[in-house]
Design brief:
Layout lengths: L5 H31 L32 E5 L10 H10 L4 E4 L6 H13 L4 E9 L4 E5 L13 H13 L3 E4 L19
């Protein structure tokens, strides 16, 4: 065994320290950018006040066919950038008078948006939804009343059980972005399987 050279140890420790400093800098920068910004990705409560609306949506009326609906929208409760109220304002400013909030495996944002719409935006309808997903498929459950928990095992049987659970709540089930991943697209279940 050869003796340890102190100069080599210093070089190694210097490289190790540089690696950790660079790594920590990258991590810190990533966290700061994700948390604070670029400015075009930070939304305040009045973010859409100056947004020109070229369409004035009709008041929501459940007895007339006058609904312009976005059936797949996320909030900060999953991978969206907008709070539930900002989500409502965005939709109103873009001409919608109804939206289904479909956060990934969460309905709290949709319930909050529904409450806010009833209190502050009575002409806007929020439907509680959930985007249920696994490695093979992304489904929207439109009109759920309680959360349908994901199953990490992406078998046809588990997907069918989730669809049945949504239907038991009276929800409509839609399939999102087929195939959502080319890597798993060949194994995307079809309608006859489910």
């Amino acid at each position: 065994m050869r003796p340890i050279n102190p100069i080599e140890v210093k070089k190694f420790l210097g490289r190790l320290l540089a690696f950790f400093i660079i790594g920590a800098s990258i991590i810190a920068t990533t966290i700061l950018v994700a948390e604070f910004g670029p400015p075009e990705r930070i939304y305040e409560a009045d973010a859409f006040d100056a947004f020109p609306s070229n369409y004035s949506p009709p008041e929501f009326n459940s007895t007339r066919y006058n609904v312009l609906l976005d059936q797949h929208s996320h909030t900060i409760w999953s991978d969206g950038d907008l709070t539930p109220e900002q989500n409502i304002i965005w939709h109103i400013k873009h001409g919608f008078n109804a939206a289904v909030i479909t956060d990934h495996h969460a309905i709290d944002g949709a319930l909050e948006a529904q409450r806010i719409a009833r209190e502050k935006y009575p002409g806007f309808k929020v439907i509680v939804g959930e985007e249920w997903s696994n490695s093979r498929i992304h489904l929207n459950f439109l009109g759920v009343s309680s959360l349908i928990l994901p199953n990490p095992i992406a078998s046809d049987e588990n997907i069918k059980a989730a669809i049945d659970a949504a239907h038991a709540q009276g929800a409509l089930v839609t399939c999102n972005h087929i195939p959502w991943s080319l890597r798993v697209g060949m194994d995307h279940p079809n309608r006859t399987k489910l």
